[in-house]
TrEMBL record:
Alphabetical list of CDD domains matching this protein: PT_UbiA_2
Membrane topology term: Multi-pass membrane protein
UniProt entry keywords in alphabetical sequence: Cell membrane, Glycosyltransferase, Membrane, Transferase, Transmembrane, Transmembrane helix
Protein name (record): Decaprenyl-phosphate phosphoribosyltransferase
Compartment(s) of residence: Membrane
Spans traversing the lipid bilayer: 35-56, 85-105, 111-130, 163-180, 201-225, 237-254, 275-293
InterPro entries recorded: Prenyltransferase_related, UbiA_prenyltransferase, UbiA_sf
Length: 295
């Protein structure tokens, strides 16, 4: 069972928690109907991402065999055969189609924008898998757009609008993580040789500058988000003070990236870095108090 979970990259599903942001920030996460729809969006996005991962591993099989870490992936190591991977991918594809059909029928065919977001994510990542992941700059932009589609899909399925500041903030946050990962791969490349074609368009100095710019823009965007009239009206004005947690989180991420070179995979931070875990928990609690106990 472990090898199949590894093939699906279940540990990467944490990224799809972004679909819950619209219902969380709207203060309606306790409404079971909307929460259930968000859970459905999470599952559909997770299955879609897993399907893409299978296609990616199938296409990169020979390269992964030569990679110091990727050689342990189920397909590259031979733990799962190519035929089995194809059958699993087809089954997941059918499951995704069934879920999208159910969502459309259950909502009276009024939720086509959600299905369009899923389809856009799938097609965009197919282009990424077959070609665009080898094109510097474009590769990290596609990753960032994928996170935006996650948030938008959470809004589409629940009927909750996503503000421009929230959309831009999501894009910039994802850009920070993508650049940090590329920087980690550059460090790894210096040790083990080239592992990704797109790395030819990056170097550590460029990654450091791009990461600093993106972090700065993300912090400024978050400040503007907390100061926007709609947020100030919806929550208590003291929501602005959650900026403290955000700045700390970005500084910790920069420390991990620039000092310790530990960010080849951004999800590892969420699972292993206790500082980031605590600060995210404090930020979450602070927002919960502003949203649900603002009186």
């Amino acid at each position: 069972m472990k090898k199949y979970l590894k093939l699906l990259r279940v540990e990467q599903w944490v990224k799809n928690l972004f679909v819950f942001l619209p219902v969380f920030f709207s203060g309606k996460i306790l409404e079971l109907d909307l929460f259930g729809k968000s859970c459905m969006a999470f599952m559909v996005f997770s299955l879609t991402a897993s399907c893409i991962y299978i296609i990616n591993d199938y296409m990169d099989l020979e390269q992964d065999k030569k990679h110091p870490q990727k050689c342990y992936r189920p397909l590259a190591s031979g733990a799962i055969t190519k035929k089995t991977a194809i059958l699993i991918g087809l089954f997941i594809g059918l499951l995704i189609g069934g879920c999208m059909l159910y969502i459309s029928i259950a909502n009276g065919m009024k939720i086509q924008r959600f299905n369009s977001a899923i389809l856009a994510y799938f097609i965009l990542n197919l282009f990424y898998t077959f070609k665009l992941k080898h094109v510097p700059i474009i590769d990290i932009f596609i990753i960032s757009i994928g996170f935006v589609l996650r948030v938008l899909s959470g809004g589409f399925i629940t009927g909750i609008g996503v503000s421009q500041w929230a959309t831009l903030l999501t894009f910039l946050l994802a850009l920070v993580l993508a650049i940090g990962k590329r920087r980690g791969e550059l460090i790894n490349e210096n040790i083990n040789g080239q592992t990704r074609k797109a790395l030819g368009g990056y170097n550590v100095q460029f990654a450091d500058i791009a990461l600093s710019i993106s972090c700065t823009l993300a912090i400024v965007c978050y400040v503007m988000f907390t100061l926007s009239p709609e947020v100030q009206y919806k929550f208590h004005p003291r929501v602005f003070y959650t900026v403290i947690f955000v700045v700390f989180a970005f500084l910790r991420y920069l420390q991990q990236t620039l000092v310790y070179n530990k960010t080849e995979s951004p999800t590892k931070i969420i699972y292993k870095d206790h500082y980031i875990q605590v600060i995210l928990l404090l930020w979450l609690v602070a927002f919960l108090l502003q949203i649900y106990f603002k009186e």
